[in-house]
Hints:
The structure is a single chain. The chain has three helices and four strands, in the order E-H-E-E-H-H-E. The chain is an alpha+beta fold. The longest helix is centred in the middle third of the chain and has 15 residues, at 28-42. Belongs to the YciI family.
Amino acid sequence: MSAPTSHFVIFHKKGPKWPSEGLSLSDPIAQEHAQYFAQFVSQGKLLEGGPFPGHSGGMMIFDSGVGEEEVRTIAENDPARIAGVMDFEIKQWMRVFGA
Length: 99
């Protein structure tokens, strides 16, 4: 087993302007949100991300080289957060094993 690596994870949750019917992946703000985070995948900063079932939020796992301050800045500039549709929480995660 290799040494643990530290990653920061954004947990997305419903913001004050979350639609009562839920958010569809085809909604314009969801598209903006996805396009915004796609740039960090292209840059090698964002490893994985996506929604939880049942409109209960989602998560984004960042590469171990991306620090908490940068992840916080990324989360704060998310168009869905700025629009009040989503809010976020950041947690540090210790990856012990995996592919």
